[in-house]
Amino acid sequence: MNHVLIEAKSKAYKVFINTGLRSKIGEMMDSIMESHVSSVLVITDSSVAPLYLDDVVGSFHEKLPIYTTVIKSGEASKSFEVYEQVMTKALESGLDRKSVIVALGGGVVGDLAGFVASTYMRGIRFVQVPTTLLAHDSSVGGKVAINHPLGKNMVGSFHQPEAVFYDTEALYSLPEKEWRSGFAEVIKHGFIRNHTFLNWLQEEVTSFEELPVELVNQMLEKSLAVKANIVAEDELESGVRAYLNFGHTLAHAIESESGYGVVTHGEAVAIGMIFALKLSEQIFEVDLDVKRYEEWFKQLGYNTKISNQLQVSRLVTKMQNDKKAEAGTIRMVLLRKIEEAILIEVPPNTIEQLLVEQMEVEING
Amino acid sequence: MNHVLIEAKSKAYKVFINTGLRSKIGEMMDSIMESHVSSVLVITDSSVAPLYLDDVVGSFHEKLPIYTTVIKSGEASKSFEVYEQVMTKALESGLDRKSVIVALGGGVVGDLAGFVASTYMRGIRFVQVPTTLLAHDSSVGGKVAINHPLGKNMVGSFHQPEAVFYDTEALYSLPEKEWRSGFAEVIKHGFIRNHTFLNWLQEEVTSFEELPVELVNQMLEKSLAVKANIVAEDELESGVRAYLNFGHTLAHAIESESGYGVVTHGEAVAIGMIFALKLSEQIFEVDLDVKRYEEWFKQLGYNTKISNQLQVSRLVTKMQNDKKAEAGTIRMVLLRKIEEAILIEVPPNTIEQLLVEQMEVEING
Ligand SMILES: NC(=O)c1ccc[n+]([C@@H]2O[C@H](COP(=O)([O-])OP(=O)(O)OC[C@H]3O[C@@H](n4cnc5c(N)ncnc54)[C@H](O)[C@@H]3O)[C@@H](O)[C@H]2O)c1
Ligand SMILES: NC(=O)c1ccc[n+]([C@@H]2O[C@H](COP(=O)([O-])OP(=O)(O)OC[C@H]3O[C@@H](n4cnc5c(N)ncnc54)[C@H](O)[C@@H]3O)[C@@H](O)[C@H]2O)c1
């Protein structure tokens, strides 16, 4: 079966990509797990459960005890409260160290369920069954986390899944907004590591309506190959893995200032990438053809401007408090050219100026 | 300086043992940390803070930002609630990925602070400054955790400290009960790996009054050497590390059934060790001289009988639900002879019978 191999230092595992995969997970688990599985807890959310939970549970053919728990759909579920609730469910179900957690859903379910797996009895195995396009990114690489009221993903760990089962069929129930959100991370992988792929995307994807499933499979393989590469080089984010943060420093600030859920992650990343491209042009005195990319983004329905509801000074402060930053400084991933990322410290002044330029102009002021 | 080297697979670090060490931590940190430290958060508890917090903070000579947080003394602080509170404190203090957490206290502080360190921004560095005898065990080996209402240490991870600073002077403010609790783990190390050490302990320690500090230093080094050995062989508890659980299967059940805090951990482990010795004699048909050990335990003030307030059937159920067990079975560490531990599955019946024999007899029934 089509797959991408992730060779993290702590563990190697496969990302299987195929249509209809959700109904084969139970059978495939046998060959994937190196040792006995005593029971399974499937964690999913309230939007995904009615669509795909039965298929996943059914795929185990009652060969071992399966428990399920459904969290509320949405970012708010990545909380201490829900974390504790899921732990309670795991204990009540009698999960032991040989049990496996199945994360069925988007990045929210994956991050939460992964963090539960990484800390339940000091760590048990889990598999990812991503159901959003964005989750092609979040389900791979082992970063798991919940949010703290004072910051997103502030509490978490590194815990690699045993396997990722990507059922591309499941993507077709996603609203367009979620395609757009996930596609930003696909583009990002092109920008930081694969110019050819980026060009191909620009040719092939000009709308999210009726994308053929073969194209989606191919796109995911290419995009995941970039991530696989980077994770293999630097599992624990002490070096090149930071490049995956391209577009994210501003995106995190925008998400946090807007209130989570107002803009999707990918929408914010799109704005952040345009910003990072402009900043790169300015700092390295190169021409990256930003205009053309911005047009493409607009064609795909992205807003590339920063909402005028937001305050530049507050965005700058948030960027200084980013998890990747040492207190006070702003470190960003920029491009010296397409495919050539670099992590550098940028003076807050420079950032502030360029942010002002990217603000949405109020027309009926 | 006297130290024991811990060579875990994921990291090697030293346990420094000396009197007055708490006032030197700040200075020693410089030479221990491989990279820049941006700030420090000292986590301690309400009994330890008035005694030693100033010394530790003072040892940094205001060379970098130091924050402190004091949790309530006692097992109840290993909770989700306190975990979240300490995370809040860490975020409010602006800790970043270069910050270091200092765990100043007994096993409760060490386990909680270590779990915070392991999950704050997906893991930052921490050092252990144990102040109880029991913490000679808990501060080494990287097992960190909080409790869930449904089970002790159910939520946690493996996260090794950068160093352990053991100030033996600080032990002298401990109540006798806490010496007794910690000493059970010292004895355990003798039982599972070092008969000579066990004999030496039996000679040298017959009361906890006025133990000379040199003897305590020596005892800690020997005891830690056993733990170091085992952790080096098996950091993640997939094999021999389970031997450290000698006496603990029953102890956990007793603690949980009594309500935490009623018996200390070590008092419960003492009962558990006598039980495991008797069971070993029975199963392997050997003579381990249990009577003599039981006498020594009594001389030291341990109660070796199971309280008749407890129900045997409930203890058995709890032993079946132990974190180390696969659901339903009872696996215990026994001794084929002193110094020769083995992990085996014991039929619940056999356990039940022997538990009845070890129950306290009600005299004024
Ligand atoms: N761990 C990482 O490396 C990493 C990387 C990027 C993002 N993330 C995290 O991922 C999260 C965002 O992920 P997301 O965008 O997938 O959000 P999400 O999980 O909230 O999913 C988006 C929405 O789509 C719904 N949904 C999911 N699958 C569906 C389907 N097949 N059909 C219809 N509806 C479906 C969900 O219920 C939700 O309402 C954020 O919390 C972010 O921090 C993590
Ligand atoms: N991580 C591990 O490998 C491991 C191993 C064994 C035990 N543990 C954990 O350790 C905990 C028990 O540790 P503990 O026995 O140190 O308990 P503790 O931390 O509660 O300390 C016992 C009591 O002594 C007080 N105290 C601490 N130092 C003092 C001092 N120098 N002078 C006066 N009073 C002092 C404390 O405030 C507390 O009231 C349990 O939660 C147990 O699960 C962990």
Automatic annotation (TrEMBL), chains A, B:
GO terms for molecular function: 3-dehydroquinate synthase activity; metal ion binding; nucleotide binding. It holds the Pfam family DHQ_synthase. Pathway: Metabolic intermediate biosynthesis; chorismate biosynthesis; chorismate from D-erythrose 4-phosphate and phosphoenolpyruvate: step 2/7. The gene is aroB. It is an enzyme of class 4 (lyase). It is found in: Cytoplasm. One of its GO terms (cellular component) is cytoplasm. Binds 1 divalent metal cation per subunit. Can use either Co(2+) or Zn(2+). InterPro entries: Dehydroquinate_synthase, DHQ_synth_AroB, DHQ_synth_fam, DHQS/DOIS_N, DHQS_C. This is 3-dehydroquinate synthase.
